[in-house]
What does this fold into?
Amino acid sequence: MKPVVDGLEKSYGEKVEFRRLNVEKDQAAVELANSMGIQYVPTFLYVNTDGTVAGQVVGEQAEEQMKQALDKLQ
Amino acid sequence: MAQKQAEKKKSSPTTVILIVVGVIAAVIVGWNLMKPAGGGTAGVRNVDTAGAQQAIAAGARIIDVRTAGEYEMGHIPGAENVPVDQIATAAEAWDRNADYVVYCAVGSRSTGAVQTMQSMGFKNIAHLNAGIQSWTGGDLQTGSEQGKAETKIETAGKPVLVEFYTDT
It folds into this structure.
């Protein structure tokens, strides 16, 4: 999954911030994961500029599927 | 006649005590039998998602018996990957009295793993018998949308893709 996300960051990095949160090491990440009910890794949150969560996707995704979700972000 | 009845009454405290003890025993046995699948904290048992979460929260070791490839595509945070064909060897070194949560994709491989562990003397296994598919309720191969969360995420003037991950 990492190569796909890294590749997307190169093409979308200007428009979208890529934030990776380690739920085993980062306490703030654990707290956010708990508050969001995250129980599986990887889980992706697509967040609009106003902070609203446009989508929450669990597990591996195809690159094309991720691109479509990223394109829809406002 | 009245004397006999009085004698009978004399023996009644013992009878009452026996009945009370019997009722208490029946309630205890019945309670244990009727406990929901997810409510137990000991023994080898099948659990649903809530039961697995409860065991994990209580500190159970999480064993994912799928292949390394399946594990890499996603897993429960903190889970150790021990493919089912390696369980017998790997579990040799594990604490038989510790608590474990065991899962696979849909419950068939983990059933075999649990049976192996049970035969090796493991006492406390919460088996997520509907598999990891029941955990997320979706198709993990392609990514499944879980609905939109109410929580707002802090942003710095542009959209964000948040990835929750672990090193393993």
About this structure: The longest helix of chain B spans residues 2-34. The CA atoms of residues 55 and 72 of chain B lie 23 Å apart. The interface with chain A takes residues 53, 72-78, 132, 135-136, 138-149, 151-168 of chain B (CB under 8 Å). DSSP finds six helices and seven strands in chain B.
